[in-house]
Predict the structure.
Amino acid sequence: MQIYSFPTFNLTKVLLTAEEAGEPYQLNLLDLMKGEHKSPEHLARHPLGKVPAVEIDGNHFFESNAICRLIAERNNNTLYADTPEQRAVINEWVDMTSMHIGRWLTVLFFETTIKPKFFQGETNPKAMEEAKGFLAQQLPPLEQQLSQGEFIAGENLTIADIIAFSYFSTAPYSGFDLSGYPQISRWMATIKARPSYAKAMSHLPGGDVFSMLN
């Protein structure tokens, strides 16, 4: 599998999934400043010129969550599940953390880190307040879910954990305090300590998907 991207938490999803599933891959880093993500070659991989995108046997696939599902299914449903009902549990948490929790963590990350560093913009207090308000509503259910097992969907790591973790990895850079959520904090530390995380990050400049922010 060929992966095309530049460093982003969405790339973390794909790298961790590949490492955990044992999917061989080669990471091809695109130069954002040169606009390589908008080149004809990359637009053939992703019609919007976004990242990551992957190539498998001459076929292109895009959208990080879809790629994670594809990798899991290609590897005997490792990190997924064997029944529709079990997969539904994983999928509902993938959607919950992507469309709701992840959305607001991304707003905080953009407002506090990306906007001022790369766009010379000022942080929008209203956007920050809105994001924190929604997270105050949405994090307790995840905290409760993680109190029932080591991982989101039970005792085994799944793509629900990898996808959610990738959003939560932005929190330290946003200054978002998770100390009031001990189960979420425990779960994050567990995933970060897995060998797959170190292997995934070893492919990136500075050994970290966020090294450009340091």
